[in-house]
């Protein structure tokens, strides 16, 4: 449940806020029909629902605990969310780069008209600096998100390995029990046939 909260709320909210702040000064770009962010965020929410469904799967054969297949589905769902997060980050970065290019063009125009537009030029510098800060913040958050996802994937892998070890131990004990049962049955058959031979 903690994993689902982590994936559903903070990352989606932070990406949406970053996207809104990056496009706040260019509403035409933010509302353009080619903007992939709403579609990507919706696809990510569907993947989170698939992850939650996979995370709640239980197998009655294993004491109502997740099976290896269930854990693999959880890992696959996490990988899908990681890939979708990467797509969202790239879409946000692409929009930010488009905004940066527009700011650079405005800066060049301000340099050409420097005698009459000194105020506009300083404003453009501030906007460009803000965009650089947004890009660096986005990259830092992306690194933190990837580290958290790697930690979660490592935890899932450890759980899978532990389950495999238990299953191998159970299988080994079953083989030993079958061998002992076979030995006991064979010993009984020998003991039951031994008195008959003495009577003859």
Automatic annotation (TrEMBL):
Coiled-coil region(s): 121-155
Full protein name: Uncharacterized protein
Signal peptide, first to last residue: 1-24
TM stretches of this protein: 168-185
Origin superkingdom: Bacteria
PROSITE patterns associated with the record: PROKAR_LIPOPROTEIN
Alphabetical UniProt keywords: Coiled coil, Membrane, Signal, Transmembrane, Transmembrane helix
């Amino acid at each position: 449940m903690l994993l689902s909260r982590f994936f559903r709320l903070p990352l989606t909210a932070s990406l949406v806020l970053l996207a809104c702040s990056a496009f706040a000064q260019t509403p035409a770009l933010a509302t353009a029909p080619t903007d992939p962010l709403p579609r990507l965020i919706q696809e990510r929410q569907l993947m989170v629902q698939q992850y939650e469904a996979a995370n709640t799967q239980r197998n009655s054969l294993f004491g109502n605990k997740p099976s290896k297949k269930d854990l693999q589905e959880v890992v696959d769902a996490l990988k899908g969310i990681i890939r979708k997060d990467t797509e969202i980050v790239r879409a946000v970065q692409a929009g930010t780069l488009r905004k940066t290019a527009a700011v650079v063009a405005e800066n060049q125009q301000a340099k050409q008209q420097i005698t009459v537009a000194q105020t506009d030029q300083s404003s453009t510098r501030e906007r460009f600096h803000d965009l650089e800060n947004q890009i660096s913040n986005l990259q830092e958050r992306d690194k933190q998100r990837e580290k958290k996802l790697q930690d979660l994937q490592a935890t899932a892998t450890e759980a899978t390995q532990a389950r495999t070890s238990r299953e191998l131990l159970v299988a080994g004990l079953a083989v030993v029990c079958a061998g002992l049962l076979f030995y006991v049955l064979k010993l009984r058959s020998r003991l039951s046939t031994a008195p008959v031979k003495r009577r003859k």
